[in-house]
Amino acid sequence: MRILVVEDDLEAQRYLVNGLKEAGHVVDDAADGDTGLTLALSRPYDCAIIDRMLPKLDGLNVVAEMREHGNTMPVLFLSALSEVDDRVKGLKAGGDDYLTKPYAFVELLARIDALMRRRAPAAVKTKLAVGELELDLLTRTATREGQAIDLQPREFRLLEYLMRHAGQVVTRTMLLESVWEYHFDPQTNVIDVHISRLRAKIDKGFSAQLLHTVRGAGYMIRAAK
Amino acid sequence: MLRNSAFLHWAQRVLHTQAFRITLVFVFFYAVTATALVAFTWWNSQRALDAQTDQTIEAEVAGLRDTYLRLGVIGLSDVINGRVAQHGSGIYYLESPSRAVLAGNLLGIPETAKSVGGFFEFEYQRAQQSETVTRTARGEGFTLPGGYILLVARDVTDQKYSRKKFFTTIPWTIGLMLLLGIAGGVLLSRNILRRLDTITRTSSEIVAGDFSRRVPITPAGDEFDTLAENLNVMLERTERLMKGMREVVDSVAHDLRTPLNRLRNRLEDMQRKLSPEDPHLDDIDSAIAETDRLIGTFNALLLIAEADSGMTRGSMSAVDLSAIVADIADLYAPLAEEKEIVLEVAPSGVLTIEGNRSLVSQALANLIDNAIKYTPSGGHIWVAATETPAGIDLCVADNGPGIPVQDRTRVLERFVRLEKSRNSPGTGLGLSLVAAVARMHEAKLTLGDNAPGLKATISFPRTFVKKGNRE
């Protein structure tokens, strides 16, 4: 995938670019808003990672200009500013996701993967399936190998989010943000408890494990090989 | 109906102003003083008038007595008849010892005249244009040597009439004075109220977070404008301070986040480069974990600063507390269950406040998190949002060990952790953040005794409660 990185802190930029390249992406970089905007408008990218505060042209303005030119590529904002209403400003300006520095690289990677996946035009699905596990979005029911699984509404949403991102790492904050719509960091790992309950329902008693813990990153649901 | 009640409300406000009360007191004292002054002047002038009449009569009486002594009864009768014929205001009456009328223009002597010496008032009848009218006179009667009784008086009916007329006008005058005074008071109060209302409106807008507002200054240049100017100078300074605070928070955030970011990047980079079997991997993992704790503390501190600086005021919107309670309880339910703690949520209707959803949720999460952390296995936690006369209470109670009374204020300070919890995970900022979120919503955080256990309550004031809540 082709990714554009616009970041003025050169050291942070270097780590970011190296990390993304190691993850198999093709990366272009820019250190100021003007260059970033020119690159964004002249070349096709799958995703852009843009710092909120940039010399010459502010990150918010870069994205606003991009959107004005009809450019719809997914954008993830990085910000070293204080958070509370900054996130709202970022998303209002046309950003798709928002990450506060310092961030964990795996978190960033998981988020841009999710952003790029979201971009692929998916037909309106009424059923999700991972291996033998099926989720009917209309009847709100789950089955595995034909056996009905009883899920609470929140567990259903959690599983739905995981299955929509099947094969991708999903971090705890991503789950908290999308399933509970909260943007704070709970002091205790409440998400882990929810996952282990869900795992008990969908994996217990079956030969293959579908819901995996990715060390130091989060969770992933994928079909057994 | 609505108009009527709006008017009543307005009238009530006007009547309750200081200006109106002052006017009322002033009008009252003015009326009393003016009445007293007028009454005194009138009484004095009446006395002077009476004295003048009396003097005239006395002089006349002296003259008549002289006439009597020189010319006898016949001479006196002649003089009296001569004066009567002049049709003046004089009233005369001369009676012989045998009660026969000798001269004068009275038909008989009033009963009072015989017994009393000195001046007195009496009524008498007089023919006036073919009818008889009763009039009032003031005079002196006395007995002449030889047993003759002489009465000399003056008609005072007109004087009496004007006196009476004056008396009837006094209540009307006072009434009018009070009426005008009250009307003036209302006008004055309304004006003052209008001026003060603009100041109140501006200041409440500022309290709500719009620091760019200023009190309008009128061209009148009066004392209110001086007050407004002073307020505006103060506001200018406050705005500058808040802006400065914001800039400090922002630049601290930026200047600390950037190196922290690099630090974490570097550690992650090392972690990636090492092979999974490398013995140093554990060290790097714990270094990353330590960095994350540092970041957590830093973020919490920054959030407290933001909440306290009013920076988050712009991010307020209508949020339903009962929905937040349900969501956060749902988030923490499995955690409580795992520790065999019952997490009980009291059901409530929609309870909307003006607030920051994320921060209020985080505050509630911190309270529930604490409760789960400190309540032993088998315990009970109660979460409730309830409407009270003063506003809405958000309450988390447990039956754990609680917090000793003497420590309850201390735990709200930053980084304070009680001795026994020093080794459990946490930044020591959880309750400080709850307190800051409460302050930001002008709410009060109270830590009370649940006997046994802790009962933490955030009391949102009525001003932050949205109208239209229903049970």
Say what the CATH topology of the largest domain in chain A is.
Rossmann fold
What topology, given as strand order, has the largest sheet of chain A? Answer: 2-1-3-4-5
Low-confidence runs of chain B: none
Number of spatially distinct domains of chain A: 2
Using the alpha-carbon principal axes, give the shape of chain A.
elongated
Q: Which percent range describes the beta-strand content of chain B?
A: 15-25%
Mean pLDDT of chain A: 87
Percent helix of chain B: 55-70%
CATH topological fold name of the domain at 316-464 in chain B: Heat Shock Protein 90
Domain Response regulatory (chain A): 2-116
InterPro entries (chain A): CheY-like_superfamily, OmpR/PhoB-type_DNA-bd, Sig_transdc_resp-reg_receiver, WalR-like, WH-like_DNA-bd_sf
Keywords (chain A): DNA-binding, Phosphoprotein
Protein name (chain A): Response regulator transcription factor
List the helices and strands and how they pair.
The complex is a heterodimer of chains A (225) and B (471).
Chain A lengths: L1 E5 L3 H13 L3 E5 L2 H10 L4 E5 L7 H10 L6 E5 L6 H7 L4 E4 L4 H15 L7 E4 L2 E4 L4 E4 L2 E3 L3 H12 L5 E2 H8 L10 H13 L8 E4 L3 E4 L4
Chain B lengths: L1 H14 L2 H68 L4 E6 L5 E4 L6 H5 L3 E10 L2 E13 L5 E7 L1 H51 L15 H51 L7 H29 L7 E4 H18 L3 E4 L6 E4 L1 H18 L5 E9 L2 E8 L31 H11 L3 E6 L4 E8 L10
Parallel strand pairs in B: 7-9
Antiparallel strand pairs in B: 1-2, 1-5, 3-4, 4-5, 6-8, 9-10, 10-12, 11-12
Helix pairs in contact in B: 2-4, 5-6, 6-9, 7-8, 8-9
How would you briefly describe this protein structure?
Chain A has 225 residues and is of the alpha/beta class.
